[in-house]
Amino acid sequence: MFVHSLTGKLSLAFTGFGLGVILLAGSFGIWNTADEFNRRKFQQEELPELVRQLVVYYEDHDESWETHDEDPPLPSYAVLLDIDQQPVDALPKQLGRKRAWLRRSRNFGDVAIAKDGQVVGFLRVRHPPPVQNIEDVTGAAQSPMAWLGFGAILLTAGVSGTLMSRRMTRPLQELTEATRAVAAGDLEYQVPVRSQDEFGTLAQAFNSMNRKLKTSQQQKRRMTQDIVHDLAQPILVIRGLVESMQEGIVPKSAENLQVVRQEADRLDALARDLHFLEQADSRRLRLNPEWVAPRDLANRFRTMYQEPARRVGIDLQVTVSANLPLVHVDTERFMQALSNLATNAFQHGAAGDTVTLTAAVHEQEVRFILTDNGPGVLETDLPHIFDRFYRADGSRNPVSGGSGIGLAIVKSLIEALAGRVWAEAAEPHGLRMVLSLPVGSVNEREKALDSNV
Question: pTM higher than 0.85, yes or no?
Answer without folding.
Answer: no
